Amino acid sequence: PGFFSLAMSIRIVPLGAGQDVGRSCILVTLGGKNIMFDCGMHMGYNDERRFPDFKYIARSGPLTHMLDAVIISHFHLDHCGALPFFSEMVGYNGPIFMTYPTKAICPILLEDYRKITVERKGEANFFTSQMIKECMKKVIAVDLRQTYKLEEDFEIKAYYAGHVLGAAMFHVRVGNQSVLYTGDYNMTPDRHLGSAWVDRCLPDVIITESTYATTIRDSKRSRERNFLKKVHSCVQKGGKVLIPVFALGRAQELCILLETFWDRNDLQVPIYFAAGLTEKANNYYKLFISWTNQKIKTTFVDRNMFEFKHIRPFDRAFADSPGPMVVFATPGMLHAGLSLYVFKKWAPDPKNMVILPGYCVAGTVGAKVLAGKKVIEIDKATTINVRLAVEHLSFSAHADAKGIMQLIRQCGAKNVVLVHGEKSKMDFLKEKVQREFGVNCFNPANGEALDIETESPLPVELSKAFLKREAASGHEPVEHVKRTVASSVDATTTTTA
Q1: Is 253 annotated in the active site?
Q2: Terminal Cα-to-Cα distance of the chain (whole angstroms)
Q3: Distance between CA atoms of 82 and 189, rounded to whole angstroms?
Q4: Rounded CA gap, 116 and 396, in Å?
Q5: Options 88, 209, 224, 253, the catalytic residue
Q6: In what order do the strands lie in the sheet with 69-71?
Q7: pTM of the model
Q8: pLDDT in tens, 184-204
Q9: Which of 66, 195, 251, 284 could bridge to 245 as Cys pair (CB 3.0-4.6 Å)?
């Protein structure tokens, strides 16, 4: 018996997040299995472009027979926002994998998204509350580092990703081929979560986010000091501070920071948070305390870090109240909801301030504000004059360039695919990866199929009689066997599209 190294390929097609941030959705075919990683929506669009183009998989009809599994990395809407549309309206009845906290929090954010889109904006062709419930019934929840076998030679394993509560990276193995999909991750611990971790799983391909592909962040401490100084200085002068955030994640991080500062300096200026969401968030942080960092776990018995004494629920009427205040409002990119409502009211007053703590997708009001636009048209009837102070202090829970390189090194990937980032920044990182690791690095656009060849050891038993016969007929036996095996493998491998 001998082993031949057979070239097989892994096909990767981004339906979303290819050279872009938004509607993450990556199709991967390995070992004849088709897997969809994430199924998100795009914050920058309000038409059919907000969801991935599922017609790529099949022009019409349900897609259950086309896919073997859907895996959702975390609860942010740009990673799960299209899931009920995909499963209930396009039609998919197969397994959907995510972690326990993601399964608990996902439906709340999906319902919030549905309400804003249907009830406030009046859109018709959208998923219903019932569809969200039906979709979540298809979900199989997984634990960290638990290997889940779908078939004898087809398994998935989740690793801790930091980023937000319940976020995970997924390692999928089919036969001798494997892929590590990172979703969004953070390589540095923060005030409430630990840092991402993966073992040396040696995937054929790592598919990694690259949101901050060209950024090396300054120290966290100096960013926190800067943030507190700016908030304090604005409220001291009688101004109002708006901090647009997403419901869970950075919100808790910054709440812990302000709560500690207010306590230490005995400040009386009110801090508000969008009512309802904090209570829900606190309950989930209590429920999934094992997903937080060590400090929170150890102090949890004496004190729950998520019970804030200075932070109160916000009512829309407070936006017109006189005097200084700090308001956390959702969503984080100012593209809809309460944060946009408050921004419209406070933007014309130069005493006020908006602090954008995260990434803003092109096309959102947040991105326009950061670009320094002084007049922003929301719709035909609404124009905002921006006179308030604008600050962008990155408290984003994404890995920076150093963190991305660290993860690639840690897992020992043989090929790298960059998604969830801007093309120009990806090109810079791509060159760096190829130079430092000597491996191939790709950044396919949406709808572009990428085939990556992998070497797969294949045991083949040859009889002496066969070798003699091949030699007598003038064939090179080994090459002949390789060609025969390769053509039979190609015939039995199915791919998407």
Answers
A1: no
A2: 37
A3: 29
A4: 24
A5: 209
A6: 139-142, 96-99, 69-71, 33-37, 25-30, 2-16, 450-460
A7: 0.84
A8: 999 988 888 999 999 999 999
A9: 251
